[in-house]
Protein: Metallo-beta-lactamase domain-containing protein
Organism: Starkeya nomas
Amino acid sequence: MRPEELLHSTPQGLYSPAGDFFIDPTRPVARALITHGHSDHARAGHGAVMATRRTLDIMAIRYGEGFAGTTQAAAYGERLEVNGVGITFHPAGHILGSAQIALDRQGCTIVASGDYKPGADPTAEPFEPVPCHVFISEATFGLPVFRHPDPAQETAKLTASLALFPERAHLVGAYALGKAQRVMALLRAAGHERPILIHGAMERLTDYYRSEGIALGAVHLARDAAPAELAGAVVICPPGAMTDLWSRRFPDPVTAFASGWMRIRARQNGVELPLIISDHADWDDLQASILATGCEELWVTHGQEDALVHWAGLAGLRARPLHMVGYGEEEAETTAAPDTAAPDTAAPDTAAPDTPAPESPETQP
Ligand SMILES: [Zn+2]
């Protein structure tokens, strides 16, 4: 079977003509396989959804229980079949529950990796290379300038700043799903023992990580904290909250931002403490991960496609860009529940010196 008969790109996402299903479609479809819970990959409104149990749980948290007509949980390593196409989910190491999806039929195997990273992360199931004929990769950080440092070394910048400025709150911008919880775990690994304060938009996802056995230590809502608790505290919030009214309750905070983009964008965002912590493969990781699959062919979905395709050609692989749109915007998620939607927000917010402002979710345009 030619690979394109098993899977090819369409304006709605990757589509399998043989299996009649999409992977991470950008618009509602009859049958969707979902790699992970970030909103650019997992959307509400599909007829039937197959994903890992954790991704299904995360979608239910973000969109409500009725986010799809029917759902089917796929365990890692378990081979399922849809219309004669074999389907196996494998860990992608990106966020909790994230998966690469391997399709096989008549001797042809294609792996759609979604977003992935091979580096260590106690908050995600470890990435595993899956042997295949065609590997489909993103290329968010597919340029030689992107070489992510050791996340422990980046975390040490934060703990050093806490020691230097014990009277100042440290406001850390991080995406509500995945990055926020990873920063918490990194802080715990670095020996930070104080309660970590969070924005309300992160509460349910953080609770979910903890309920799945991810150790994050004491985590409290920032809005419930007394002013004295804010001194020297780490406060994690969605990037959009760092500049809105919500952040004014923290006098003279140190502003930090945890993202792979901090390699190049720290100054333009006015961040005092850029933390290069990424949940995506960097330039070296991309190459090593692709070669580890033993694939003959590489398809690149989005990001720095041309550079990765060029590298693959030099490495002896057939490679082509898919020019897919609608991905790579997990940084602009609009789906996290606003703090004001929680039932307890009717109570007076005694920690805030100003009137309680609606805490914006990740609503960056
Ligand atoms: Zn993602």
Residues 151-275 form a domain with the Rossmann fold fold (CATH 3.40.50.12650). The chain has a mean pLDDT of 90. The longest strand covers residues 85-91.
